[in-house]
Design brief:
Elements (H helix, E strand, L loop, with lengths): L4 E4 L2 H6 L3 H9 L6 E6 L4 H10 L3 E7 L7 E7 L5 H8 L8 E4 L3 H13 L4 E3 L6 H12 L5 E4 L1 H6 L7 E4 L6 H8 L9 E7 L4 H11 L34 E7 L3
Parallel strand pairs: 1-2, 4-9, 5-7, 5-8, 6-7, 8-9
Antiparallel strand pairs: 2-10, 3-10
Length: about 260
């Protein structure tokens, strides 16, 4: 009854992890008269819906998100899905890239990718929501201590991991939200170091890839797919509609409820 301020941080990720019912249950026990602050790096429809339910006459504050660090060598391959695993097996040289973080779009794909990489001889672990808290913590500790050199996860991992020395980030799938791209590749080249970020782009992901280049305001170099992997999709991306006039800076959104 004495609570005056409620802060919901990383709200988009909490919803991605399935915590909507838990959030609403906790809030049902809180006093109605309070100040609520909601932080979200992205603003998909589900976050706007949540904000509409929780906030009364809110003020919206937008903050420019960080651009990718200068030390990140960004690359992209235009590739067929059937070629991705073969390309990974060529790219992931443990001498060149001793610590690798791979992002996939779904939990099921994370699990499947972990199994495939282990069958190819890579010491890899899959990080997903089906694991218990202690299991997730143990996997992160093994990765942090370099005992597990390859870690696979979804976008949830891009916000929750703080590990130094990640030499390579691979986007096995192009993220749905271009701002998630910045969060993903931001796991490498930290503290003024250097790192590499490679994105695998299939035909269906070309428009999303174009949105990423628009967000970071620079083209990402295309690397030719090795000939032995077969024919790859043409590297011509689908152009989005022209931007509306503005300052061109990407935004991070914050919803803040006025004190009643």
């Amino acid at each position: 009854d004495q609570l005056e301020h409620l802060v919901l941080d990383e709200a988009d990720r909490m919803l991605d992890m399935g915590f909507y019912d838990d959030i609403m249950k906790i809030i049902s026990f809180l006093p109605h008269k309070r100040q609520t602050v909601l932080f979200s790096a992205t603003m998909p429809p589900k976050i706007r819906t949540l904000a509409g339910k929780l906030l009364n006459n809110p003020e919206q504050i937008s903050i420019a998100i960080s651009q990718p660090a200068a030390g990140i060598n960004q690359q992209a391959y235009f590739i067929q899905d059937s070629q991705k695993i073969k390309l990974l097996s060529q790219i992931m040289d443990p001498v060149v890239y001793p610590t690798v973080l791979i992002f996939a779009s779904t939990k099921d794909k994370v699990k499947a990718l972990g199994k495939v990489l282990r069958s190819l001889g890579f010491k890899a672990e899959a990080f997903h929501s089906d694991l218990g808290q202690k299991e997730r913590e143990a996997i992160l500790l093994e990765f942090k201590n370099k005992r597990v050199p390859v870690l696979i996860g979804t976008d949830v991992l891009s916000r929750g991991i703080d590990v130094e020395g990640i030499s390579l980030v691979i986007n096995f799938d192009v993220p749905h939200d271009p701002e998630d791209y910045v969060h993903r590749i931001g796991r490498t080249a930290r503290a003024a170091t250097k790192g590499t970020a490679i994105t695998l782009v299939n035909d269906k992901d070309k428009r999303k890839f174009a949105s990423i280049e628009k967000l970071i305001d620079k083209p990402i170099p295309r690397i030719p797919v090795p000939e032995e992997l077969g024919q790859s999709p043409e590297g011509q991306i689908i152009q989005d509609k022209p931007k509306k006039p503005g300052n061109g800076k990407p935004k991070r959104r914050i919803w803040k409820k006025k004190t009643e």
